[in-house]
Specification:
Chain lengths: ~325, ~200
């Protein structure tokens, strides 16, 4: 009786043990064996993610085990950016060269009248040249960081090039502040005259004086082309400033390396497009158009130039009593 | 010619941080810079793994590729080093490195990046071997003495292996075959673009 009872209990106990989940699990799952595999973990990562863990170092950024996005950033910076930059900048230069050859320098049809009208006051000119001067140094030092190794280093020794680049980086970091100030100032003094309106549509329809030789579409203080430049500079300037801010103070970027990669990408992409746009602006304001440079050069433009390109503005200025009346002998070409 | 590599056997690492301490002490690494660090994943859960991370001295190093002043060079032992004289502290190498090896002191303008510092495989830098200048900039040069990196030498469990790639691969293979599994030699595939065949 006793033996039979004991065997029954033993059998029941065995059945109990065998049927519990713990017993079943032990046969299949070995946490030590299911070890970290590089391939597996990398496949599980979504684009831009980092693999992080626990560290004893206070700096959270050091917690990353691997950030595969770095490889993508390398491909962008070394391959995609040079192509985009090359196409944008060299393409724009080629376009301007072709335009110059085909259309030629835009002349004043009525010739110089010898009478001038004040176009830009000292504040206007100061703001423009402050921003433009900073832009040129910023652009050169910035382009050097992206393309200098390829284009300039072969012609200088590594020490000279590194010193130049280091100085360029310092100039870039410090001049960014007057540039941002200039952008803000430009907005304040010129936004009123740069609001798009129906007149701009008319100007565009008539080819803006660029395409058809004899047309002088009406324009107020700033024509549609200039308004486009204004808003490119405002938009571009703001985005460059914001992205550049995080590159100036990288430790303020809470997102660590992923966030910095994003800002660097935006900054570099926009930079090459911005530079290309400014080439066009600089062209038309100097070589491209007779009498245009005086506007920012000394602020006084020829009256005939003003009447041909900004007729409505001249009328407004004359009504205010700020502009000279037409001298009797200088007749408009029409 | 030897091709120097690191291998951290994630199944042996016990997160003792001896490698971190040895490196910091030997090269008198300044505050805030961590040439080597130990990262623990799945902390406290089954399958917890610790990995000792530093510069992996990659074949086709991303840091060298993106540097605007080309301040990196690879030695005959395939150790990736850089020149602090040429470095401008731009941060590009940090953006590109998958392992986060480049570190910067916060001594630049506006408290931003100074010259980049990273694991040198205890091989110093472009300055003359054993010179004071080399020690001040890059730390001790053990490789020129014929010694291996101190982090691997100090590893308490011999999980961090450093030396010629073929030799440490064969050591690791032996371990894998003995225990019946391995963690795939963390970082090896990304850095050296090959796997250890077991």
């Amino acid at each position: 009786m006793n033996t039979w009872f004991k065997s029954l209990v033993a059998l029941l106990a065995l059945a109990f043990v065998a049927s519990t989940p713990v017993a079943a699990q032990n046969n299949n799952f070995n946490p030590t064996k299911e070890a970290v595999k590089e391939e597996q973990l990398l496949n599980a990562l979504k684009s831009g993610e980092r693999l992080t863990g626990r560290i004893s170092i206070p700096d959270e950024n050091a917690a990353s085990l691997i950030q595969p996005a770095g490889q993508e950033w390398r491909v962008f910076h070394q391959q995609k950016l040079p192509i985009i930059g090359g196409v944008a900048i060299l393409g724009m230069l080629a376009l301007l060269a072709v335009f110059y050859v085909v259309r030629g320098r835009i002349r004043i049809d009525g010739g110089f009248s010898g009478v001038t009208i004040t176009r830009f006051a000292s504040l206007d000119r100061f703001t423009h040249w402050l921003t433009a001067g900073c832009f040129i140094v910023l652009a050169l030092s910035g382009l050097n960081l992206s393309f200098g190794r390829m284009l300039i280093l072969p012609f200088f020794g590594p020490e000279t090039f590194a010193t130049l680049t280091a100085l360029g980086k310092l100039a870039h970091n410090y001049l960014s502040f007057p540039f941002m100030f200039g952008i803000a100032l430009m907005f304040v003094i010129w936004v009123r005259d740069n609001i798009p309106n129906k007149l701009d549509l008319e100007w565009i329809k008539q080819g803006g004086g660029l395409i058809f030789k004899d047309k002088h579409p009406p324009a107020k203080r700033f024509n549609a082309g200039q308004k486009v430049v204004f808003w490119i500079v405002m938009g571009g300037g703001v985005v460059m400033s914001v992205s550049g801010w995080f590159l100036l103070f990288p430790y303020q970027a809470q997102g660590g390396v992923s966030e910095l990669q994003l800002w660097t990408t935006i900054h570099a992409l926009l930079a090459v497009l911005f530079v290309a746009a400014m080439f066009a602006h600089a062209y038309i304001g100097s070589v491209g158009m007779e009498g245009a440079f005086d506007a920012m050069g000394n602020g006084e433009v020829d009256l005939n130039w003003a009447k041909e390109h900004h007729a409505l503005w001249v009328e407004e200025e004359q009504a205010k009593g700020k502009a000279p009346a037409i001298p009797p002998r200088a007749m408009p070409a029409e | 010619m030897a091709r120097m590599k690191f291998l951290c056997d994630a199944d042996r690492c016990i997160e003792c941080n001896a490698c971190v301490t040895a490196c910091k002490n030997e090269h008198e690494v300044p505050w805030g810079i961590n040439r080597r660090r130990v990262v623990t994943i799945n902390d406290g859960k089954p399958g917890e793994r610790s990995v000792s991370m530093a510069c992996m001295h990659c074949t086709d190093a991303p840091c060298a590729a993106v540097c605007p002043v080309s301040c990196f060079y690879t030695t005959v032992d395939a150790v990736v080093l850089h020149s602090k004289d040429l470095c401008i502290g731009c941060g590009y190498c940090f953006y590109a490195c998958p392992f986060g090896a480049p570190q910067y002191p916060k001594v630049g303008n506006f408290g931003s990046r100074g010259k980049m510092d990273k694991c040198t495989y205890c091989a110093g830098g472009p300055e003359a071997d054993f010179s004071t200048a080399e020690y001040e900039k890059y730390g001790r040069n053990r490789l020129a003495e014929g010694k291996l990196p101190l982090c691997a030498e100090m590893c308490s469990t011999k999980s961090l292996l450093a030396g010629d790639g073929d030799i440490i691969a064969s050591i690791y293979k032996e371990r894998v075959m003995k225990r019946g599994y391995g963690s795939g030699a963390w970082g090896w595939k990304t850095a050296y673009k090959e796997t250890i065949s077991v």
